[in-house]
Write a structure and sequence with these properties.
Elements: E1 6-10, E2 16-17, E3 33-37, H1 38-60, E4 79-80, H2 85-91, E5 95-96, E6 100-105, H3 111-125, E7 128-132, H4 137-146, E8 154-158, H5 162-172, E9 176-180, H6 197-214, E10 217-223, H7 235-239, E11 242-247, E12 254-262, E13 270-276, E14 279-282, H8 286-291, E15 301-308, E16 311-323, E17 331-334, H9 338-352, E18 359-365, H10 377-389, E19 397-399, E20 402-403, E21 409-410, H11 415-424, E22 429-433, H12 434-439, E23 448-452
Parallel strand pairs: 6-10, 6-11, 7-8, 7-9, 9-10, 17-18, 19-22, 22-23
Antiparallel strand pairs: 1-2, 1-3, 4-5, 11-12, 12-13, 13-14, 15-16, 16-18, 20-21
Helix pairs in contact: 1-6, 9-10
The structure holds thymidine-5'-diphosphate and magnesium ion.
Thymidine-5'-diphosphate binds near residues 109 and 110.
Length: about 475
């Protein structure tokens, strides 16, 4: 266009500059600059402002009077079961009617599979419109046959243009709208490629607007980028009611979902699935799955029990500590925060005079689970010591406790629930923080408890 100039807009924070930069000077993101024509960036910004105004104007202009907080009523949400109990649990008890949920994860992890399974159950009682911008009718039919999905209430549309999607939505009048994926949807009035920040935002905005105005539940698929975030703008996460993230490794058959945002429930719950020939099947006993194939009599392993939402889950932490000739040893951690690993190593060096500085250290949680609870500290530390010393821990031992910087073992929550789950799985020796044992006397049949004050006391368990 005559006289139009290109500008660069940061996809993370919308910082604008006339020159391309590798790193955004405003938010510090790398490689986040996207080229846009200046007048389009301006119209997009204005369009957004007016769309946003339209979106919220009904809330602004109702002339509502302020009421006392005490007079507020607890809302009752209408929920639909999705047929996958584990997903319902993560959503807070089923899909809330009229809510917008973003389902994100790496390609091939099972997002389309899950949504097709869900549409079969929802289609029994509600009208479902499945928009696919990624697969052909043939591919979808094959998957539907494999998953035994059918029903006269299910509608399918292969489309990527938002205008036709909205038209089809008006025609079909669904209760549930599934869009796979938001990155393929585009608005032909905007001169930027599908998948770009402007397109993703516009498409999501239009769908959310429609959903909220007409009370449609929307399930959006969002791909993740290299860094593990949802590709496209961060603002997408703010626009939706719930964000559900697929964790775990694609190479393994287990899949874990977690809500990282949920306006209608807690974000602590996880759902565990196994990918089978006939789709995702629920795993009712995640601990058993996580412990299956556990190596016996090998150094560097320790079992731990963490609380995920309302459930205790027993998992296994593995460590590998090997000598390195290089001056800066390697540290790598999967499933546990990297900084937590650094802290544990520092505590062990200082308090137990163990030398990790000449060793590489790797830490891994089996099964693709992410442990965020400090209660996993003690088990991680024991796995590290076990590998460093090449001394084996008993197979029937579980270690529970948070490690302080002085090497003290600090109390954790829900100790009784954890001990019972360990006992159920056949563990007979459980190391717990002394403070927990003092606060409450615990007796579980067939289990010996070892209350400890510091990490030093646990050294006697090494063979
Ligand atoms: P898919 O759901 O298409 O992943 P996404 O939409 O997240 O990209 O498929 C995930 C993988 O699962 C794919 O490699 C094939 C496999 N799969 C099964 O193992 N069993 C099944 O029943 C289906 C439908 C897929
Ligand atoms: Mg897919």
């Amino acid at each position: 266009m005559k006289g139009s100039k290109s500008i660069y807009v940061c996809t993370e924070c919308e910082y604008k500059t006339t020159k391309w930069m590798g790193k955004c000077p405003s938010c510090g993101a790398w490689n986040s600059m996207e080229e846009q024509e200046e007048y389009l960036a301006e119209t997009a910004a204005q369009g957004k402002a007016s769309a946003r105004h339209a979106l919220f104007s009904s809330a602004v202009d109702t002339g509502a009077d302020a009421i006392p907080f005490d007079a507020l009523e607890i809302p009752t949400y209408m929920r639909s079961e999705t047929g996958l109990g584990e997903l319902d649990r993560v959503l807070g008890g089923g899909l809330v009617l009229g809510s917008v949920v973003l389902l994100s994860g790496e390609p091939g992890i099972g997002k389309s599979t899950m949504l097709m399974q869900v549409s079969a159950t929802l289609g029994k009682t509600r009208r479902v419109l499945y928009i696919s911008g990624e697969e052909s009718q043939g591919q979808l039919k094959l998957r539907a046959r494999r998953l035994e999905v059918q029903g006269s209430n299910l509608y399918l549309c292969i489309e990527t243009n938002i205008r036709n999607i909205l038209r089809q939505t008006d025609k079909v009048k669904p209760d549930v709208l599934i869009v796979d994926s938001i990155q393929t949807i585009y608005n032909d009035e905007i001169n930027s490629a599908p998948g770009s920040v402007t397109q993703v935002k516009e498409a999501a905005m239009a769908l959310i607007h429609k959903a909220k105005n007409e009370g449609i539940s929307v399930l959006l698929v969002g791909h993740v980028n290299k860094e593990g975030g949802i590709a496209g703008p961060k603002v997408l996460e703010h626009m939706v009611d719930a964000v559900i993230y697929f964790e775990g490794e694609r190479q393994q058959s287990y899949r874990i979902i977690r809500a990282i945002k949920n306006r209608y429930g807690s974000t602590n719950e996880i759902g565990v699935f196994e990918m089978t020939d006939t789709g995702l099947s629920e795993v009712e006993n995640p601990s058993e799955m996580l412990l299956s194939g556990r190596p016996q009599g090998v150094s560097g392993n320790c079992a731990v029990c963490v609380i995920e939402g309302s459930r205790p889950i027993v998992a296994e932490i593995q460590a590998l500590v090997t000598q390195t000739p290089f001056p800066s040893p390697r540290r790598s951690s999967t499933g546990i925060d990297y900084n937590r690993l650094q802290m544990l190593l520092a505590v062990l060096e200082k308090r137990l005079a163990l030398r990790f500085s000449t060793n590489d250290a790797y830490l891994n949680v089996i099964g693709g689970l992410r442990l965020e609870e400090p209660a996993a500290d003690l088990a991680a530390a024991l796995a590290l010591i076990s590998s460093l010393k090449d001394r084996v821990l008993p197979d029937d031992l579980v270690a529970i406790g948070e490690l302080g910087l002085a090497g003290e073992v600090r109390a954790v929550s829900c100790i009784e629930q954890r001990v019972r789950e360990c006992a159920r799985l056949g563990f007979t020796r459980i190391v717990i923080p002394k403070k927990n044992a003092e606060a409450k006397s615990l007796h579980v049949e067939g289990v010996e408890l070892f209350p400890v004050v510091s990490i030093y006391e646990t050294l006697s368990f090494f063979a």
